[in-house]
Amino acid sequence: MKKVFRTIGNVAVAIAVAASMFANVQVSALAADADASEPVATETTVTGAEEENKEEAPAESSEEKKEETKEEAPVAKKDTIYINFKEENPQIIAINKMPNGPEDFATNNYSTSEKNAFLIAMLNASCSAFGSNEDGVIVLGENKEITVNVDDVNISVDAGNSTGKFETTVSKKDFDKTGDMPDSFDPVETLCDIFDLDKDVESFKIEITFADEKTEEPTTEEPKTEEPTTEEPKTEEVTPAPTNSDDKKAAETVKDEKKEESAKVAVGTDFVDNGYSYKVTAADEVTFAGSQNKALKAVNIPDSVVYQGTTFKVTAIADKALFGNKKVTSVTVGKNVKTIGASAFAKCGKLKNVKIDATNLEKIGKKAFNKNSKKLVVKIHKASFKSYKKLFKKAKLSKIKLKKIK
Q1: Is residue 251 part of a domain?
Q2: Residues of the domain holding 280
Q3: 333-375 residue pLDDT tens
Protein backbone atom coordinates (compact mmCIF):
# COMPACT_ATOMS: atom_id res chain seq x y z
CA MET A 1 0.00 0.00 0.00
CA LYS A 2 2.97 2.41 0.44
CA LYS A 3 3.24 2.60 -3.36
CA VAL A 4 -0.44 3.60 -3.48
CA PHE A 5 0.12 6.30 -0.83
CA ARG A 6 3.09 7.79 -2.71
CA THR A 7 1.04 7.91 -5.90
CA ILE A 8 -1.86 9.57 -4.07
CA GLY A 9 0.56 12.14 -2.60
CA ASN A 10 1.89 12.95 -6.09
CA VAL A 11 -1.67 13.44 -7.28
CA ALA A 12 -2.38 15.97 -4.51
CA VAL A 13 0.72 18.08 -5.31
CA ALA A 14 0.03 17.96 -9.06
CA ILE A 15 -3.57 19.04 -8.51
CA ALA A 16 -2.42 22.06 -6.46
CA VAL A 17 -0.08 23.18 -9.31
CA ALA A 18 -2.82 22.66 -11.90
CA ALA A 19 -5.31 24.65 -9.82
CA SER A 20 -2.86 27.60 -9.57
CA MET A 21 -2.24 27.60 -13.34
CA PHE A 22 -5.96 27.40 -14.02
CA ALA A 23 -6.59 30.41 -11.72
CA ASN A 24 -4.01 32.57 -13.64
CA VAL A 25 -5.62 31.65 -16.96
CA GLN A 26 -9.03 32.65 -15.61
CA VAL A 27 -7.74 36.09 -14.42
CA SER A 28 -6.15 36.83 -17.85
CA ALA A 29 -9.33 35.79 -19.67
CA LEU A 30 -11.49 38.04 -17.50
CA ALA A 31 -9.21 41.06 -18.10
CA ALA A 32 -9.39 40.54 -21.88
CA ASP A 33 -13.18 40.32 -21.78
CA ALA A 34 -13.39 43.52 -19.76
CA ASP A 35 -11.30 45.47 -22.37
CA ALA A 36 -13.37 44.10 -25.25
CA SER A 37 -16.70 44.99 -23.65
CA GLU A 38 -15.83 48.65 -22.61
CA PRO A 39 -18.21 51.03 -24.47
CA VAL A 40 -16.78 53.69 -26.90
CA ALA A 41 -18.43 57.17 -26.80
CA THR A 42 -19.65 58.34 -30.25
CA GLU A 43 -21.78 61.30 -31.33
CA THR A 44 -24.99 60.45 -33.17
CA THR A 45 -27.61 62.69 -34.80
CA VAL A 46 -31.21 61.70 -34.23
CA THR A 47 -33.65 62.61 -37.03
CA GLY A 48 -37.27 63.55 -36.50
CA ALA A 49 -38.43 60.21 -37.94
CA GLU A 50 -36.29 58.34 -35.49
CA GLU A 51 -37.74 60.43 -32.62
CA GLU A 52 -41.23 59.44 -33.74
CA ASN A 53 -40.25 55.78 -33.93
CA LYS A 54 -38.85 55.98 -30.41
CA GLU A 55 -42.08 57.46 -29.11
CA GLU A 56 -44.14 54.80 -30.89
CA ALA A 57 -42.06 51.87 -29.53
CA PRO A 58 -44.26 49.83 -27.19
CA ALA A 59 -43.29 49.87 -23.54
CA GLU A 60 -42.16 46.55 -22.05
CA SER A 61 -44.93 44.79 -20.20
CA SER A 62 -44.58 44.23 -16.47
CA GLU A 63 -44.79 40.47 -17.07
CA GLU A 64 -41.74 40.58 -19.39
CA LYS A 65 -39.79 42.56 -16.80
CA LYS A 66 -40.70 40.04 -14.13
CA GLU A 67 -39.46 37.20 -16.30
CA GLU A 68 -36.15 39.01 -16.84
CA THR A 69 -35.64 39.63 -13.12
CA LYS A 70 -36.54 36.09 -12.14
CA GLU A 71 -33.69 34.46 -10.28
CA GLU A 72 -32.54 31.08 -11.45
CA ALA A 73 -33.11 28.19 -9.02
CA PRO A 74 -29.95 27.21 -7.13
CA VAL A 75 -28.15 24.19 -8.60
CA ALA A 76 -27.83 21.26 -6.20
CA LYS A 77 -24.28 20.55 -5.11
CA LYS A 78 -22.54 17.52 -6.56
CA ASP A 79 -21.34 15.81 -3.40
CA THR A 80 -22.16 12.11 -3.87
CA ILE A 81 -20.11 9.25 -5.34
CA TYR A 82 -22.09 6.23 -6.58
CA ILE A 83 -20.44 2.80 -6.84
CA ASN A 84 -22.34 -0.10 -8.40
CA PHE A 85 -21.06 -3.64 -7.81
CA LYS A 86 -24.38 -5.04 -9.02
CA GLU A 87 -23.43 -4.40 -12.65
CA GLU A 88 -19.65 -4.91 -12.46
CA ASN A 89 -17.67 -6.97 -9.95
CA PRO A 90 -14.75 -6.98 -9.31
CA GLN A 91 -13.61 -3.46 -10.28
CA ILE A 92 -9.95 -3.04 -11.27
CA ILE A 93 -7.31 -0.39 -11.98
CA ALA A 94 -3.84 -1.20 -13.30
CA ILE A 95 -0.92 0.00 -11.16
CA ASN A 96 0.61 1.78 -14.18
CA LYS A 97 -2.66 3.71 -14.67
CA MET A 98 -2.66 5.19 -11.18
CA PRO A 99 -3.03 9.02 -11.58
CA ASN A 100 0.33 10.84 -11.65
CA GLY A 101 -0.69 14.42 -12.37
CA PRO A 102 -3.41 16.88 -13.44
CA GLU A 103 -3.05 15.90 -17.10
CA ASP A 104 -4.46 12.47 -16.21
CA PHE A 105 -7.64 14.05 -14.87
CA ALA A 106 -7.87 16.54 -17.74
CA THR A 107 -7.90 13.82 -20.40
CA ASN A 108 -10.57 11.96 -18.40
CA ASN A 109 -9.32 8.64 -19.69
CA TYR A 110 -10.41 6.61 -16.67
CA SER A 111 -13.32 4.18 -16.78
CA THR A 112 -15.87 4.14 -13.98
CA SER A 113 -14.46 0.81 -12.78
CA GLU A 114 -10.92 2.25 -12.56
CA LYS A 115 -12.10 5.33 -10.63
CA ASN A 116 -14.05 3.14 -8.19
CA ALA A 117 -11.10 0.80 -7.62
CA PHE A 118 -8.81 3.80 -6.93
CA LEU A 119 -11.35 5.31 -4.52
CA ILE A 120 -11.87 2.17 -2.44
CA ALA A 121 -8.14 1.40 -2.31
CA MET A 122 -7.51 4.96 -1.09
CA LEU A 123 -10.26 4.79 1.55
CA ASN A 124 -9.03 1.38 2.70
CA ALA A 125 -5.49 2.69 3.08
CA SER A 126 -6.11 6.00 4.82
CA CYS A 127 -9.73 6.55 5.93
CA SER A 128 -10.64 5.47 9.47
CA ALA A 129 -14.35 6.08 8.91
CA PHE A 130 -14.73 3.65 6.01
CA GLY A 131 -15.66 0.29 7.56
CA SER A 132 -13.30 -1.99 9.47
CA ASN A 133 -10.33 -3.67 7.85
CA GLU A 134 -9.75 -7.34 8.71
CA ASP A 135 -6.88 -8.94 6.75
CA GLY A 136 -7.61 -6.98 3.58
CA VAL A 137 -11.38 -7.35 3.91
CA ILE A 138 -13.39 -4.13 4.48
CA VAL A 139 -16.40 -4.98 6.64
CA LEU A 140 -19.20 -2.46 6.05
CA GLY A 141 -21.98 -4.38 7.80
CA GLU A 142 -23.89 -7.65 7.69
CA ASN A 143 -23.49 -9.29 4.24
CA LYS A 144 -21.54 -6.22 3.06
CA GLU A 145 -17.80 -6.83 2.59
CA ILE A 146 -15.20 -5.72 0.03
CA THR A 147 -11.86 -7.47 -0.49
CA VAL A 148 -8.94 -5.31 -1.67
CA ASN A 149 -6.20 -7.15 -3.57
CA VAL A 150 -2.96 -5.40 -4.56
CA ASP A 151 -0.29 -7.09 -6.67
CA ASP A 152 2.49 -5.94 -9.01
CA VAL A 153 0.02 -5.38 -11.88
CA ASN A 154 -3.43 -4.44 -10.57
CA ILE A 155 -5.49 -3.14 -7.68
CA SER A 156 -8.81 -4.97 -7.60
CA VAL A 157 -11.79 -4.53 -5.28
CA ASP A 158 -14.19 -7.47 -5.04
CA ALA A 159 -17.62 -7.35 -3.35
CA GLY A 160 -17.98 -11.14 -3.42
CA ASN A 161 -21.47 -12.21 -2.36
CA SER A 162 -22.36 -8.92 -0.65
CA THR A 163 -25.98 -7.80 -0.94
CA GLY A 164 -28.07 -4.65 -0.37
CA LYS A 165 -26.90 -1.04 -0.15
CA PHE A 166 -24.37 0.89 1.97
CA GLU A 167 -24.24 4.65 2.54
CA THR A 168 -21.73 6.77 4.48
CA THR A 169 -20.31 10.30 4.64
CA VAL A 170 -16.56 10.95 4.63
CA SER A 171 -14.84 14.24 5.57
CA LYS A 172 -11.24 15.51 5.70
CA LYS A 173 -10.87 14.72 9.40
CA ASP A 174 -11.58 11.03 8.74
CA PHE A 175 -8.33 10.59 6.79
CA ASP A 176 -5.21 9.40 8.62
CA LYS A 177 -1.83 10.98 7.86
CA THR A 178 1.05 8.61 7.21
CA GLY A 179 4.75 9.08 6.60
CA ASP A 180 4.19 8.61 2.85
CA MET A 181 1.60 11.38 2.55
CA PRO A 182 2.76 15.06 2.37
CA ASP A 183 1.19 17.72 4.59
CA SER A 184 -0.22 19.40 1.47
CA PHE A 185 -2.23 16.28 0.59
CA ASP A 186 -5.97 17.00 0.52
CA PRO A 187 -7.84 13.69 0.02
CA VAL A 188 -11.26 15.31 -0.37
CA GLU A 189 -9.99 17.73 -3.05
CA THR A 190 -8.25 14.86 -4.83
CA LEU A 191 -11.44 12.79 -4.97
CA CYS A 192 -13.43 15.86 -6.06
CA ASP A 193 -11.11 16.10 -9.08
CA ILE A 194 -11.49 12.45 -9.97
CA PHE A 195 -15.27 12.25 -9.55
CA ASP A 196 -16.12 15.81 -10.69
CA LEU A 197 -17.61 16.90 -7.36
CA ASP A 198 -18.00 20.50 -6.15
CA LYS A 199 -14.67 21.79 -4.81
CA ASP A 200 -16.17 23.69 -1.87
CA VAL A 201 -17.52 20.56 -0.12
CA GLU A 202 -15.99 19.70 3.24
CA SER A 203 -17.29 16.14 3.01
CA PHE A 204 -18.86 13.85 0.45
CA LYS A 205 -21.28 10.94 0.44
CA ILE A 206 -20.60 7.43 -0.83
CA GLU A 207 -23.45 5.17 -1.94
CA ILE A 208 -22.53 1.55 -2.77
CA THR A 209 -24.99 -0.84 -4.42
CA PHE A 210 -24.35 -4.56 -4.07
CA ALA A 211 -26.23 -7.50 -5.56
CA ASP A 212 -29.92 -7.99 -4.78
CA GLU A 213 -30.77 -10.35 -1.97
CA LYS A 214 -31.82 -13.71 -3.36
CA THR A 215 -35.42 -14.63 -2.73
CA GLU A 216 -36.91 -17.95 -3.63
CA GLU A 217 -39.79 -17.62 -6.05
CA PRO A 218 -42.87 -19.51 -4.98
CA THR A 219 -43.59 -22.49 -7.15
CA THR A 220 -47.15 -22.90 -8.32
CA GLU A 221 -48.26 -26.46 -8.78
CA GLU A 222 -51.13 -27.35 -11.02
CA PRO A 223 -54.00 -28.81 -9.05
CA LYS A 224 -54.15 -32.54 -9.40
CA THR A 225 -57.48 -34.05 -10.29
CA GLU A 226 -58.03 -37.24 -8.43
CA GLU A 227 -59.97 -39.96 -10.11
CA PRO A 228 -62.95 -41.04 -8.09
CA THR A 229 -62.38 -44.32 -6.34
CA THR A 230 -64.94 -46.54 -4.87
CA GLU A 231 -63.91 -47.61 -1.44
CA GLU A 232 -65.60 -50.03 0.75
CA PRO A 233 -67.03 -48.39 3.84
CA LYS A 234 -64.67 -48.63 6.74
CA THR A 235 -65.84 -49.78 10.08
CA GLU A 236 -64.32 -47.74 12.86
CA GLU A 237 -62.85 -49.73 15.65
CA VAL A 238 -64.35 -48.84 18.93
CA THR A 239 -61.84 -48.61 21.72
CA PRO A 240 -63.33 -50.05 24.83
CA ALA A 241 -63.49 -47.67 27.76
CA PRO A 242 -60.79 -48.23 30.34
CA THR A 243 -61.96 -50.52 33.07
CA ASN A 244 -59.61 -49.40 35.82
CA SER A 245 -57.41 -46.48 36.94
CA ASP A 246 -54.28 -47.86 35.22
CA ASP A 247 -56.00 -47.83 31.84
CA LYS A 248 -57.15 -44.25 32.42
CA LYS A 249 -53.59 -43.13 33.19
CA ALA A 250 -52.29 -44.84 30.03
CA ALA A 251 -54.90 -43.04 27.91
CA GLU A 252 -54.01 -39.66 29.45
CA THR A 253 -50.31 -40.27 28.79
CA VAL A 254 -51.00 -40.89 25.10
CA LYS A 255 -52.99 -37.63 24.93
CA ASP A 256 -50.17 -35.67 26.60
CA GLU A 257 -47.60 -37.09 24.16
CA LYS A 258 -49.75 -36.05 21.20
CA LYS A 259 -50.08 -32.54 22.62
CA GLU A 260 -46.31 -32.24 23.09
CA GLU A 261 -45.68 -33.43 19.53
CA SER A 262 -48.03 -30.83 18.05
CA ALA A 263 -46.44 -28.06 20.17
CA LYS A 264 -42.86 -28.72 18.95
CA VAL A 265 -41.02 -25.58 17.73
CA ALA A 266 -39.72 -25.82 14.15
CA VAL A 267 -35.97 -25.77 13.47
CA GLY A 268 -34.92 -22.35 12.18
CA THR A 269 -37.39 -20.45 14.36
CA ASP A 270 -36.06 -17.15 15.78
CA PHE A 271 -37.30 -15.89 19.12
CA VAL A 272 -36.38 -13.48 21.92
CA ASP A 273 -36.28 -14.33 25.60
CA ASN A 274 -35.22 -12.03 28.44
CA GLY A 275 -33.78 -9.55 25.93
CA TYR A 276 -31.57 -12.14 24.15
CA SER A 277 -32.08 -13.45 20.59
CA TYR A 278 -32.01 -17.18 19.79
CA LYS A 279 -32.36 -19.48 16.77
CA VAL A 280 -33.68 -23.06 17.07
CA THR A 281 -31.09 -25.47 15.61
CA ALA A 282 -32.45 -28.83 16.82
CA ALA A 283 -35.40 -30.31 18.70
CA ASP A 284 -33.91 -29.22 22.02
CA GLU A 285 -31.02 -26.90 21.07
CA VAL A 286 -30.67 -23.20 20.25
CA THR A 287 -27.90 -20.77 19.24
CA PHE A 288 -27.39 -17.49 21.10
CA ALA A 289 -27.66 -14.81 18.37
CA GLY A 290 -27.20 -11.55 20.31
CA SER A 291 -28.66 -9.01 22.71
CA GLN A 292 -31.65 -6.79 21.94
CA ASN A 293 -30.54 -4.33 24.62
CA LYS A 294 -27.57 -2.48 23.11
CA ALA A 295 -26.95 -0.61 26.38
CA LEU A 296 -26.51 -3.80 28.42
CA LYS A 297 -23.06 -4.00 30.03
CA ALA A 298 -23.13 -7.55 31.47
CA VAL A 299 -24.25 -10.33 29.10
CA ASN A 300 -25.01 -13.72 30.68
CA ILE A 301 -25.51 -16.48 28.12
CA PRO A 302 -27.66 -19.04 29.98
CA ASP A 303 -27.28 -22.82 30.14
CA SER A 304 -30.82 -23.26 28.78
CA VAL A 305 -33.94 -21.31 27.83
CA VAL A 306 -37.68 -22.14 27.77
CA TYR A 307 -39.83 -21.23 24.77
CA GLN A 308 -43.45 -22.27 24.16
CA GLY A 309 -43.20 -24.88 26.85
CA THR A 310 -40.03 -26.48 25.45
CA THR A 311 -36.66 -26.33 27.22
CA PHE A 312 -33.73 -25.75 24.87
CA LYS A 313 -30.03 -26.07 25.71
CA VAL A 314 -27.93 -23.11 24.53
CA THR A 315 -25.23 -25.01 22.62
CA ALA A 316 -23.65 -22.34 20.41
CA ILE A 317 -22.85 -18.63 20.08
CA ALA A 318 -23.49 -17.28 16.57
CA ASP A 319 -20.93 -15.57 14.34
CA LYS A 320 -20.75 -11.84 15.21
CA ALA A 321 -23.29 -12.33 18.02
CA LEU A 322 -22.04 -9.22 19.88
CA PHE A 323 -19.81 -7.79 17.10
CA GLY A 324 -19.13 -4.08 17.57
CA ASN A 325 -21.06 -3.78 20.86
CA LYS A 326 -19.63 -0.62 22.44
CA LYS A 327 -21.27 -1.03 25.87
CA VAL A 328 -20.68 -4.62 27.00
CA THR A 329 -17.91 -5.01 29.61
CA SER A 330 -18.40 -8.62 30.74
CA VAL A 331 -19.70 -11.90 29.28
CA THR A 332 -20.50 -15.24 30.92
CA VAL A 333 -20.69 -18.28 28.63
CA GLY A 334 -23.14 -21.00 29.74
CA LYS A 335 -22.06 -24.58 30.51
CA ASN A 336 -23.80 -26.17 27.49
CA VAL A 337 -22.04 -24.05 24.83
CA LYS A 338 -19.96 -26.16 22.45
CA THR A 339 -18.98 -23.60 19.80
CA ILE A 340 -18.17 -19.88 19.82
CA GLY A 341 -18.64 -18.36 16.36
CA ALA A 342 -16.21 -16.28 14.32
CA SER A 343 -15.96 -12.62 15.44
CA ALA A 344 -18.59 -13.38 18.11
CA PHE A 345 -17.16 -10.76 20.50
CA ALA A 346 -14.93 -8.81 18.05
CA LYS A 347 -14.72 -5.02 18.33
CA CYS A 348 -16.29 -4.92 21.79
CA GLY A 349 -13.92 -2.15 22.84
CA LYS A 350 -14.89 -2.15 26.53
CA LEU A 351 -14.98 -5.93 27.00
CA LYS A 352 -12.61 -6.69 29.89
CA ASN A 353 -13.94 -9.84 31.55
CA VAL A 354 -15.10 -13.15 30.01
CA LYS A 355 -15.93 -16.25 32.04
CA ILE A 356 -16.36 -19.57 30.23
CA ASP A 357 -18.45 -22.03 32.26
CA ALA A 358 -18.80 -24.40 29.29
CA THR A 359 -17.70 -27.92 30.18
CA ASN A 360 -17.45 -29.31 26.65
CA LEU A 361 -16.29 -26.47 24.38
CA GLU A 362 -15.21 -27.88 21.00
CA LYS A 363 -14.47 -24.90 18.77
CA ILE A 364 -13.61 -21.19 18.94
CA GLY A 365 -14.11 -19.32 15.66
CA LYS A 366 -11.55 -17.08 13.99
CA LYS A 367 -11.26 -13.64 15.61
CA ALA A 368 -13.91 -14.51 18.20
CA PHE A 369 -12.01 -12.14 20.49
CA ASN A 370 -10.48 -9.32 18.43
CA LYS A 371 -9.96 -5.60 19.08
CA ASN A 372 -11.32 -5.79 22.61
CA SER A 373 -10.07 -3.87 25.63
CA LYS A 374 -6.33 -4.32 26.24
CA LYS A 375 -7.27 -5.39 29.78
CA LEU A 376 -9.36 -8.36 28.54
CA VAL A 377 -9.02 -11.52 30.67
CA VAL A 378 -10.73 -14.81 29.81
CA LYS A 379 -11.36 -16.99 32.87
CA ILE A 380 -11.44 -20.79 32.38
CA HIS A 381 -12.10 -23.52 34.94
CA LYS A 382 -9.08 -25.57 35.96
CA ALA A 383 -10.44 -28.85 34.55
CA SER A 384 -10.82 -27.37 31.05
CA PHE A 385 -7.91 -24.92 31.00
CA LYS A 386 -5.39 -27.06 29.11
CA SER A 387 -7.72 -28.15 26.30
CA TYR A 388 -9.34 -24.72 25.91
CA LYS A 389 -5.92 -23.07 25.70
CA LYS A 390 -5.27 -25.22 22.61
CA LEU A 391 -8.57 -24.05 21.10
CA PHE A 392 -7.52 -20.41 21.56
CA LYS A 393 -4.16 -21.17 19.93
CA LYS A 394 -5.84 -22.96 17.01
CA ALA A 395 -8.06 -19.90 16.47
CA LYS A 396 -4.91 -17.69 16.42
CA LEU A 397 -5.93 -16.05 19.68
CA SER A 398 -2.85 -17.02 21.68
CA LYS A 399 -2.28 -13.36 22.64
CA ILE A 400 -5.48 -13.31 24.70
CA LYS A 401 -4.75 -13.44 28.43
CA LEU A 402 -6.23 -16.63 29.96
CA LYS A 403 -6.71 -17.11 33.70
CA LYS A 404 -7.24 -20.41 35.47
CA ILE A 405 -10.08 -20.55 38.06
CA LYS A 406 -11.57 -23.30 40.21
Answers
A1: no
A2: 265-405
A3: 999 999 999 999 999 999 999 999 999 999 999 999 999 999 9
